[in-house]
Amino acid sequence: MTALPPTPDFDFWPVDHAVHTLKIAEDALTITWTDGRTSQHHALLLRENSPDPVTTHPKAREMAIGPEDIPIDLHILDARRQASGAVLVSFSDGLQSEFHPGWLRGTAWFGHETPEPLVLWTAKDLPEPPTFDGRVALDDAETFLSWLEALRTYGVARLRGLPQEDGLLEKIVTRIGPVRESNFGRQYVLEIKDDPDSQAYTSGSLLQHIDLPTRELPFGLQFLYTRENTTTGGEGLYVDAYRLAEDMRSAEPDHFHSLVTDIWEYNNRARTSDYRGRGPVIETDQTGAITGVRFNTFLRAPMKAPLNVQARAYRAYRAFSVRAQSADYQMQIRYEPGDLLAFDNRRALHGRAGYEAKGGARFIEGIYADRDDLHSRIRTLKRHLRAARA
Ligand SMILES: [Fe+2]
């Protein structure tokens, strides 16, 4: 069998279905596949995604032409299936190009696709984070991927039993993507400071919150690597804010409306920085799906809004907070040495029980990154694993 043509990307496109018949209409190609499904491909879409080296940069695999380089009345003159399974398309501007059948199938429209579902949870549903053997995950790409997928799905996932090693946290995080630095540094250490610029650096309890709501885009991921913990108390308290928000959507619609509409401001309180971020407590997309939360009581600034908005916003914020502080929603975990807890900072609220600092030591390292890096690494790991199996 002759080789299949390249695709305008670096992705792996499995050929699970073959092209059965081809039909040309005025400005589109219709493919009937061997499983009976049909797909339609607009001439302009095919033309600008042609893998030929003029249209697609042969090294960067990015589009190398603009819309104005294609005749406005472009149409398809001919399409035929090749022995390799590829489709050879002749365009009215003189270009003949072969298209990979896996790419044609994988990029086709078959109706609205539901994204991989997130699993929302309460304390009862998920008493412990999904946990993977840290030493195995470091050596085995499938286990590492399972950890990342659990993080995406549940918003919290743990590696356990990692060795104690300086620099290991950064080494693991950079296997996912770049570290996102903050005003707390490239890596921070949760320990007691004499002059704390955050309540995180005390032994007191911490209310449920996300970190850095003071940023235009709050950090997407947080990683906590426990090096030492012989103190009593100080459990981590995690809440799936998406579960909480969905419960409010159905049980408290007025409060929910305020939480997705009314804008709160957050500012950090430090002597050498003055970050300010603003947004609703619950962020939604154009379909109403929840995409993030911006909730942090101790960094919240006075609301600048008409009195009636202040009144409803305070009531709604309080109702959200009451749920966040409720044991029904709070997963309670102890940080053991060798644990690496990863969580979605824009989904999983976190808090801390107070701890007794005397007579024990507690040393937890932390690093931030972003969701995009997680999603990109999941895709590339899957691509490599699929290609290796093919
Ligand atoms: Fe925090």
Overall geometry:
elongated
Helix/strand-derived category reads alpha+beta
Provide the helix percentage: 25-40%
Q: From the coordinates shown, what is the CATH architecture of the largest domain? A: 4-Layer Sandwich
Radius of gyration, CA atoms, in whole angstroms:
26 Å
Largest sheet: 6 strands, mixed
Oligomeric composition of the shown chains = single chain
**CATH fold node name of the largest domain:** Double-stranded beta-helix
Number of helices: 9
What is the residue-averaged pLDDT?
Answer: 94
CATH superfamily of the largest domain: Clavaminate synthase-like
Hetero compounds: fe (ii) ion
Major beta sheet, strand line-up: 7-8-19-11-22-9
Strand content: 25-35%
Number of strands: 22
User: What top-tier CATH class of the largest domain fits best?
Assistant: Alpha Beta
What is the total domain count? 2
Summarize the structure in words.
This protein has 390 residues and is α+β, with helices and mostly antiparallel strands. It folds into two domains: 19-113, NE0471 N-terminal domain-like; 131-381, Clavaminate synthase-like (Double-stranded beta-helix), CATH 3.60.130. Helix content is 25%, strand content 26%. It is built from nine helices and 22 strands. The strands form seven sheets. The chain has a six-stranded mixed sheet. The protein has a four-stranded antiparallel sheet with strand order 10-20-13-18. Helix 4 (141-154) packs across helix 9, helix 6 crosses helix 7 and helix 7 (253-261) packs across helix 8 (307-324). The radius of gyration is 26 Å and the shape is elongated. Bound molecules: fe (ii) ion (FE2). Fe (ii) ion (FE2) is lined by residues 200, 209, 211, 350.
